[in-house]
Amino acid sequence: MTTWSVVKDDTQETGRRRRYFQYAVFGLATLLVVSLGLVLIPREPSPPAAPPFSEQARASAFADSLSLRVVGLDLDGAAGATAPAPLAAALARVVTLLTVQAQALMLPAVASGNRAQTVPATEAATALASITPPSTTADFAAALQASGAQRLQDAETADGGMARLLAGTGTAQLLAAEELASAAGIALAPLPVAGPSSLASPAAPTPATASAAASCPSEAAVADASTGADLGPAIASAVAGELELVYAYQAALTRLNSGSAAPASNFLAQHVTLRNEAEAIGRSHCAAVPLRQPGYALSQVFLADPAAGLGTLEAGILPVFGDLVSLSEGRDREWALSALESAARRTAHWGASPGPVPGMVLDEALLPPLPEPVSTPGPSATSAHGNS
């Protein structure tokens, strides 16, 4: 009896060990299968990083320019020969402007130079697919004005070269909206007035400006500074340009007819203010500010037609302010943006062209062609005009 009990206990113990071993094998196999499954199942792709603000601003400007261009083409085609000549001409100029701007916005500016990279065609297709139906001329002018204001707002915080491109695009769109509204005999809603952005006159310097000027290092140290080597010459060019323009307006006032003398006097006051402010900005950055000269040589062409000469000088300072926009930041950039816009307006007043992107010198022959418009049911003026 005892022997049987011992054998039975040994058999039960062996059976328990066998079951434990089987459990361990099954558990190990299950763990292996689960592990392999986790390895083989692909991970959920992480969401793409949001593009930088400057790229978002460029893409938005590109989409708006394409959308507005198509609406302008449709309005131009619908007006046909029935539109008054000034309105038809204004619409044609706006379409041309938006065409060049869209081409320029397809080339994202590179801060280290003028190199560029074409955006994917899918971006253009997305922009064209979101086009709103044709609107009235009043709606079109309002949308153009809103786009220009948005571009200038984005230029306040965008990166260097992109800020210049956005600033020029927005400035030209504001001027085009006003020209179109005038030709159509409609009034645009006033844009919100921004706070004061200009610096104080040197006659009453702010404490920050005075302390900065007092603590300026030597000129050699400024030249070696990473920012001074770029911003300093740009400020100096702005001061030099304003000094020459002040003298040119003073000389032109005695030669302009009565109709042009009043605006010229107002523009002269603007340039005196801009000169003082540019000098104050230069001192705050320890830049070498040009000295005021007793006079400048004026060509016989200028003396024969001072209005055209003033337009040429105003157009010539636009790239200088474009440089300042791209190189500055904060309050200095706000000042440069305001100076760029006012210079473009004065340029247009005297009959000169500020260009499709004031502040930038574009070679339109090097710009890429626009993408083909999205096919839409029914006739469209877009397909008839192409990239004109």
Structural write-up:
- The chain folds into 2 domains: 53-191, Ferritin (Up-down Bundle), CATH 1.20.1260; 207-349, Up-down Bundle (Ferritin), CATH 1.20.1260.
- The protein is built from 14 helices and no strands.
- The protein has helices spanning 2-40, 53-79, 85-105, 121-129, 137-155, 160-184, 207-214, 219-224, 228-253, 258-284, 300-304, 306-327, 330-349, 381-385.
- Helix 2 packs across helix 4 (121-129), helix 7 (207-214) packs across helix 10 and helix 12 runs antiparallel to helix 13 (330-349).
SSE blueprint and pairings:
Layout: H1 2-40, H2 53-79, H3 85-105, H4 121-129, H5 137-155, H6 160-184, H7 207-214, H8 219-224, H9 228-253, H10 258-284, H11 300-304, H12 306-327, H13 330-349, H14 381-385
What is the CATH third-level topology name of the largest domain? Ferritin
Question: Which structural category fits the helices and strands?
Answer: mainly alpha
CATH architecture of the largest domain: Up-down Bundle
* Total tally of structural domains: 2
Annotation keywords:
388 residues, mainly alpha, Ferritin, 14 helices, 67% helix, disordered C terminus
In short:
The chain contains 14 helices and no strands. The C terminus is likely disordered.
